[in-house]
Design goal:
By secondary structure, the chain is α/β, with parallel strands linked by helices. The chain has two domains: 4-82, 434 Repressor (Amino-terminal Domain) (Orthogonal Bundle); 85-281, Endonuclease Chain A (Endonuclease, Chain A, 2-Layer Sandwich). It is built from 13 helices and seven strands. The protein has helices at 4-21, 30-37, 41-48, 56-65, 72-81, 89-92, 98-109, 129-143, 149-159, 177-180, 186-199, 246-260, 266-281; strands spanning 84-88, 113-118, 169-175, 205-210, 224-227, 231-235, 239-243. The chain has a seven-stranded mixed β-sheet.
């Protein structure tokens, strides 16, 4: 399913292609355009096909390279039009959860540094299939959306392949509440906590936990992801908010860094996970 945000990227990409093909001095090939600015040759294709969001600097260079510097203001206006975009769950989930997971899979593909904050459940990127199954089933019931749970779980597991990509890094923070929330059967949560302990040993993952007892500078509220310090995805009950304006990203980076001051890592994080795991075995 194509979101409004993605549709806007594709429209902007089509305009970029039009400028390249109608350059006053003759059409440019994608390779020629990439070479002029020292870009990877795949970047031109990604921008034109709406698979990557351009920066204002990308747009200025594109306008100059195609001999249409006056087009920069138009291109920037198009970009600003979808920098911050609300994607309602009602519309996103009209075809089920799998298309939403596929959209995130695509966004993951182009990013290398991920910062995340979760207050109430385990990150999707670290979920076991059974835990993810419980989450999707609960949300499908809440949102009254099609129950494509198994397809959504498979897409989420596909997304986890990024954990084993040496070019990517995941710096994730969770509140201790996420370790204890029984959004699933106790046996499923137990297996999920065991998986979390194992994830601490991955070269690509740095997992921090904020203990209940930790002093906090700000409330541990809404979950969010930051991709490459340039795009933020925030979820609430009504919608997803995709943000890539400079001020919005900066605010979330400050929020993440402030929360991180209260997090513990390594053996201390393992001890918190272990305590939550033992609590499940208590009579």
């Amino acid at each position: 399913m194509s979101t409004d945000y993605q549709q806007a990227r594709e429209v902007l990409g089509a305009r970029l292609r039009e400028l390249r093909l109608s350059a006053p001095d003759g059409r440019l090939t994608g390779t020629q355009l990439a070479e002029r600015h020292g870009w990877n040759k795949s970047k031109v294709s990604k921008l034109e096909n709406g698979r990557q969001t351009p920066t204002p600097d990308d747009l200025r260079k594109w306008a100059d390279a195609t001999g249409r510097p006056e087009a920069y203001d138009e291109l920037l206006a198009r970009l600003r039009g979808f920098e911050s975009h609300i994607r309602s769950w009602r519309r996103q989930l009209a075809a089920g959860h799998k298309p939403v997971q596929d959209t995130h899979l695509s966004a993951h593909a182009d990013a290398t540094l991920f910062r995340g904050w979760e207050s109430s459940m385990v990150f999707g990127i670290l979920q076991t299939p059974d835990y993810a199954r419980s989450i999707f089933a609960r949300y499908a019931e809440l949102q009254r959306s099609p129950r494509d749970v198994e397809e959504a779980v498979r897409s989420r597991m596909k997304r986890q392949e990024a954990l084993y990509d040496s070019s990517k890094r995941f710096h994730l923070i969770m509140w201790e509440a996420a370790l204890r929330a029984l959004i699933c059967p106790p046996s499923v949560l137990a297996a999920q906590l065991d998986r979390l302990v194992g994830s601490i040993g991955l070269d690509t993952v740095r997992l921090g936990i904020i203990p209940f007892s930790a002093p906090l500078k700000i409330p541990p509220s809404t979950a969010f992801w930051i991709y490459d310090d340039r795009q933020v995805i925030v979820e609430n009950w009504h919608a997803e908010l995709w943000i890539d304006d400079e001020a919005g990203v900066a605010t979330h980076l400050r929020t993440w860094k402030t929360l991180n001051e209260s997090a513990v890592y390594g053996i201390d994080a393992q001890n918190l996970i272990g305590a939550a795991r033992r609590a499940l075995d208590s009579p």
